[in-house]
Amino acid sequence: RRFMEQAEKALARAQKRHTAMSMLMIDVDHFKTVNDQFGHVIGDKVLSAVGHVIKRRGRDFGFAGRYGGEEFVVFLQNTEKQQAKEIAEGIRKGIEGIAIEERMIPIKVTVSIGLSCCDAGECGHNVDALLIAADRALYQAKNRGRNRVEG
Asked: pTM for the whole thing?
């Protein structure tokens, strides 16, 4: 809820200032398998590590929040599509580099990322529309093989 409140305010500022903005929807690939195979404690470690990478990589441009079980959302202020893709790719690569091991078994962590953008002066009046577009792009990323950025 706090993320949505922040996003509504940021969207209003972007509309007023005629600046671009972008939204990333991030989903941990095969997270249920991690929980089933290694347990919820390890699943929580994975989510914490993913959240840390997202926070570190996106903090200069916006803010992030956990959106669901293994989903995160990032609001990128003053960020056009190309720059948003670069940030998203940096997040994806950073998460791919996470090293977690349980019972001497390395756990490979990857994410799929959906991206939605609006150019300066063309942002709609609704954060939900950006989320829906990012979610569609996320499912496109999953359908095209996961561990990728689409949008």
From this structure: 0.90
